[in-house]
Design a protein that fits this description.
520 residues; Serine Threonine Protein Phosphatase 5, Tetratricopeptide repeat; 3 domains; 27 helices
């Protein structure tokens, strides 16, 4: 009888409820009989929901040290080496982690006493050891997680990781993956209702509804997430995905300042600088929309320091020219940089637009030619692994169109900008700052207004504001277009919205708004 009771004990999940106030609170029972191992595991799993990779790895490895046979500690660590929403995948490191538990799936499953734990292990086996490319393996992983969710419909952790698998597989499918994304959001909302301190509930709801149509559904989760897991930089950043969709610019800036501070505190030499760079990128965009151009320069200075100290990280290399180019375009403080084979597309684009505004058509054409070459090289190659072709094609059309307009070729110039809009509408709805840097509908609206077509310009600006709410440059264009048609009330509403975004700024555009609002 004693032997039988011991055997049964090994199959009973062990759960410790730990109120981890700095990373969130979850219930995640496992088969370990070690309180120490369960405590470390629980913290690791909680942080994993916020994508705090480095912190989660430390906790999972501590759990392994306390109980080398705790299968889910290896499962959890294996998920820490890849971002589930990005196309890159390191298969070798997760494979090595899982092989520490057992050299084969069968050996690993033998260490998992419960059907639930076996399901989690089968899922990561398909993800990291399975056949096919990354998309196929993510779909296979999703299917196993779906089966696990159907088998354990009341298990919040199974539900949370199933929701994430839907977002991951749906992201690999592009626009066609929206069904999976919305299903994930519905699961996340239900989980959030049950446990307002669950980091995965808030996090995955935000990712699922990260578009201008559905973002309002995730606003309560966005407002809560940073306080759920303040110890994790990504948790402080994620609310800005929803704030940016709703044009809440101060919240965008504040969220990313907080995320940057946390990332700096956690950073050690040799770490990936992704969290710092991502926060800098998004924070700068928020401050630019607020019209705080001085602070927008601070973000650039921080990025320059990181780029000087941290070499060889692609995310840093790509982000620095982007934030510099964005500053030029949003402030309209026009400046050009030399065109070379190593010039980043964002740098070329800002130089081309600046050169047109400065009347340097030779430089504008050089930048346009360089962008066209990059666009041609990338044409037709957009995929889950490379989504640069369409933004490059848009920039190519925009620069050519702007050059044509500056040379008095109104019809052909507008046709090129309309072609850029058509390409933009093939892409998923915007998530984050505009890509390319100047929204296609906004630039078309400005050109239509300049060409004396205010009615068409209103349609372009309205669409721009549907895709990127509360953008001040689109609000300004919309106000001017309505004013040109004598639509005083509509113009007044847009000027008032602009004045609210740019309050306390000393901009010529605000003097224009004030004069209009003061007129009877």
């Amino acid at each position: 009888m004693k032997t039988l009771m011991m055997a049964l004990a090994l199959t009973v999940p062990f759960s410790i409820s730990v109120a981890a106030t700095d990373v969130g609170t979850i219930e995640f029972p496992t088969s370990t009989q070690s309180k120490e191992a369960q405590t470390h595991f629980l913290r690791g799993a909680t942080i994993l929901h916020s994508f705090g990779w480095k912190q989660a790895i430390e906790s999972f490895q501590a759990a392994q040290a306390a109980d080398p046979d705790l299968a889910l500690a290896y499962w959890g660590e294996s998920l820490c080496y890849n971002h589930p929403l990005l196309p890159e995948m390191d298969r070798e490191t997760p494979q090595n982690v899982l092989n520490k538990l057992g050299p084969t799936l069968e050996a690993r499953l033998a260490k998992a006493p419960t059907a639930r734990e076996k399901g989690f292990l089968r899922a990561v086996d398909a993800l990291f050891f399975g056949e096919g490319d990354i998309k196929a393996r993510r779909v296979a992983y999703m299917h196993i997680m779906r089966d696990l969710h159907e088998a354990f419909p009341d298990d919040d952790e199974v539900a949370a990781f199933y929701a994430l698998s839907l977002i991951s597989a749906g992201g690999a499918a592009g626009k066609e993956g929206e069904r999976e994304r919305i299903l994930a959001g519905s699961i996340g909302l239900q989980l959030f209702e049950r446990n307002r301190e669950h980091p995965g509930a808030a996090h995955y709801t935000i990712h699922a509804f990260d578009d201008p149509v559905h973002a309002i559904l995730a606003l309560p989760a966005a407002e809560k997430f940073a306080s759920i897991a303040p110890a994790v930089s990504h948790a402080r950043h994620m609310p800005s995905h929803i704030f940016i969709q709703l044009g809440m610019w101060q919240q965008v800036a504040d969220s990313n300042q907080s995320a940057y501070d946390a990332a700096v505190d956690l950073y050690e030499p040799g770490d990936n600088a992704g969290d710092m760079v991502h926060a800098l990128d998004w924070g700068q965009y928020g401050d630019l929309q607020l019209g705080d151009y001085e602070r927008a320069l601070v973000w650039i200075e921080r990025m320059e320091k990181i780029a000087a100290e941290i070499k060889g990280q692609a995310r840093v290399t790509a982000a620095l020219p982007r934030v510099k180019a964005r500053y030029v375009l949003e402030t309209q403080n026009w400046r050009t940089t030399p065109v070379s084979d190593t010039s980043a597309p964002t740098e070329l684009y800002a130089t081309g637009i600046s050169a047109i505004e400065l009347g340097d058509m030779e430089m504008a054409k050089k930048a346009s030619t360089a962008i066209a070459a990059k666009a041609q090289a990338a044409a037709g190659k957009d995929s889950f692994y490379n989504r640069q072709a369409l933004p490059l094609a848009i920039m190519d059309k925009q620069l050519k169109g702007a050059i044509a307009l500056s040379q008095g070729q109104t019809e052909s110039g507008l046709a090129l900008l309309k072609a850029a809009v058509e390409i933009a509408e093939q892409m998923p709805l915007p998530r984050g700052a505009p890509n390319p840097l100047k929204p296609a509908h906004e630039l078309l609206g400005e050109a239509l207004l300049e060409a004396g077509h205010p009615t068409d310009a209103i349609a372009a600006f309205d669409e721009s504001l549907l895709r990127m709410p509360n953008r001040p440059r689109s609000l300004l264009g919309l106000a001017r277009a309505h004013a040109a048609l004598g639509n005083r009330q509509a113009a007044r509403e847009s000027y008032e919205r602009l004045a609210n975004v740019w309050k306390n700024r000393d901009f010529a555009e605000l003097k224009e708004a004030d004069d209009f609002l003061a007129a009877r």
